[in-house]
Amino acid sequence: MTSKSRPQTLLEVLDRGPRHLFFTGKGGVGKTSLACASAVQLADAGRRVLLVSTDPASNLDAVLQTELATAPRAVAGVENLQAMNIDPEQAARDYRERTTAPYRGVLPAHDLAALQERLSGACTTEVAAFDEFALLVSDPERTAAFDHIIFDTAPTGHTLRLLELPAAWSGFLETAPGDVSCLGPLSGLKTQHDRYTQTLAALADPALTAMVLVARPDRIALLEAARTRTELHGQGMDNQLLVINGVFHATDPSDPLAVAFERRGASALSQMPHELIGLPRTDIALRPTNMVGLDALRSLLKPAERLTPSPPAPVTVPSGVSSLSALVDEIARSGHGLVMVMGKGGVGKTTVAAAVAIGLAKRGLPVHLTTTDPAQHIRETLQSELVGLRVSYIDPKQEVQLYRARTVEAARSTLSAEKLALLEEELRSPCYEEVAVFQAFSRIVIAGRKEFVVMDTAPTGHTLLLLDTAGEYHRQLTQHPVRGVRIRTPLMLLQDPDFTKILIVALPETTPVLEASALQDDLRRAQIEPFAWVINGSLAAAHPSDPVLRARAAAEISQIRKVRGHLARRVALIPFQIEEPVGIDRLGALAIDGGS
Question: For a designed S-S bond to 388, which of 72, 283, 361, 411 qualifies (C-beta 3.0 to 4.6 A apart)?
Answer without folding.
Answer: 361
